[in-house]
Write a structure and sequence with these properties.
single chain, 441 residues, alpha+beta, binds magnesium ion
């Protein structure tokens, strides 16, 4: 929805809003916010609110740390909770430098840059439907998460077994109040695991929505005495949480991926070839934590190989049978720890490279890759996804195209943050190692 400054001023008055929460994300996709009382509204609308960016991950600019918040008025939303302390409305912001130009290190600014590139190539929308999954854990008497999952339910289970159902309903109701169009919500395969799907949106709104969604889920779970986590693999031995990304390229009302006579249009195949070409480097962005790789193992419905299929769900990319406006490709590796602005920018740009470079598309796999022999996989040219954060960072280091999708500043801060994370992990001695080696050697 498009709002003018006058609209916002009127809504602040009419709705008795007392605080404005100015939101943006750091490189890790963590929501940051500057909260100002509505007395500052004029300054907010004039893009004059500043903050010190030097202590925000990925924002460090030694020479100048003051940054400006440019609110995107179309993201206006009143939080339907916490009213007892004063009504809060949020606006998602782009970060600008004090010289008045957009800050390239802001993931949202970077996504807009890639969208502009897409527009220049003749496409109006990159539509994204995401399928975030999460776990609900019980909390202890201090409200801290325990390791006890909140139910023993399973795929599409219904109450009374599915204790998550009431919380899920609460979450869905709040999301709808906030303008989300929720299409489906269901218990996932693992105990305590849930999924909520909302209607596809253009790339920028989709990234905004994913961030807001995580905030809503955590807030409402907490109100219900539960703890929600988007950590990809919180419990070993059961499925992890992914965030499938369904995507299609539109020109006005036309879905460019659709073709009456084929499973995918020629452009869709080119787009797909670009994603497959850059898949290893994209993994660093789409699966950016040490824990992400504990999910990307065989046997838990998460992909481990770079391939595509319209027949089965084992490969990285699935082409669902839907037709017309719903024709899309689904990337199944992405998990909810990704910064959605970075993930969507890099996936889109990889696809655009496929269109521009017209790479050969590998034939689709018809069999379950998990059951293929290594020889057969080699014959079909099927390569593994990186198996650790370390390996995916190496792949990103080798792929200058995907680095360019992030831009120089974000690439540098991404490597700085992630190399440090890997080093900390590498130096940690785990209980598994003590259990396995201490008595053996
Ligand atoms: N949880 C699975 C994953 O890790 C996906 C399961 C599904 O949606 N079918 O990706
Ligand atoms: Mg799903
Ligand atoms: Mg699912
Ligand atoms: Mg899916």
């Amino acid at each position: 929805q498009h709002y003018t400054a006058e609209d916002i001023t009127k809504m602040v008055k009419d709705e008795n809003v007392e605080f404005l929460c100015l939101m943006f994300t750091d490189i890790n996709g963590i929501i940051k916010n500057v909260e100002v009382p509505v007395s500052q509204l004029d300054k907010v609308l004039a893009n004059k609110i500043t903050f010190d960016g030097s202590s925000i991950d990925g924002f460090t600019r030694i020479e100048e740390s003051d940054m400006l918040l440019h609110p995107d008025l179309s993201t206006w939303l009143i939080f339907p909770w916490g009213e007892e302390h004063g009504r809060v409305a949020r606006l998602i912001c782009d970060i600008y430098k004090t010289d008045g130009t957009p800050f390239e290190g802001d993931p949202r600014v970077n996504l807009k840059r890639v969208i502009k590139k897409m527009n220049d190539m003749g496409y109006t929308h990159f539509n994204i439907g995401s399928e975030p999954e999460f776990f609900l854990f019980n909390t202890d008497e201090n409200g801290n998460p325990t390791l006890k999952l909140n139910d023993d339910g399973s795929y599409f289970d219904f109450s009374p077994v599915d204790l998550g159902v009431n919380v899920r309903k609460d979450i869905v109701l709040v999301l709808e109040k906030m303008g989300f169009e929720v299409e489906a919500s269901h218990h996932e395969v693992a105990p305590g695991q849930q999924e909520i799907d909302f209607k596809y949106q253009d790339a920028l709104s989709a990234a905004d929505s994913i961030e807001t969604f995580k905030l809503v889920v955590k807030t409402i779970a907490k109100e219900n005495g539960l703890y929600a986590t988007f950590m990809p693999k919180p419990v070993q031995g059961i499925n992890g949480s992914g965030m499938h990304i369904n995507m299609s390229l539109f020109n006005g009302d036309d879905n460019i991926f659709d073709d009456e006579n084929d499973r995918l249009s020629h452009t869709a195949k080119q787009f797909l070839s670009g994603i497959l070409k850059h898949a290893r480097a994209l993994t660093a962005v789409n699966n950016p934590t040490v824990n992400s790789y504990k999910r990307l193992v065989p046997g838990f419905e998460a992909p481990t190989y770079i391939a595509w299929s319209s027949k089965n769900r084992s490969p990285l990319i699935r082409v669902p049978a839907a037709k017309g406006k719903s024709k899309r490709i689904e990337m199944r590796s992405v998990d909810p720890t990704t910064n959605p602005y970075l993930a969507i920018a890099c996936i889109l740009d990889a696809g655009l490279d496929g269109i521009a470079s017209d790479y050969d598309l590998m034939p689709e796999v018809k069999d379950n890759i998990y059951e293929m022999s290594e020889d057969k996989r080699r014959e079909e040219g099927i390569v593994d996804l990186p198996s650790t954060l370390h390996n995916s960072l190496k792949a990103l280091r080798k792929d200058e195209y995907v680095q360019q999708s992030l831009g120089k500043g974000l690439t540098n801060s991404f490597f700085a943050a992630k190399n440090a994370e890997w080093a900390r992990y590498q130096q940690t001695v785990s209980q598994w190692e003590r259990d396995t080696y201490m008595s053996q050697y």
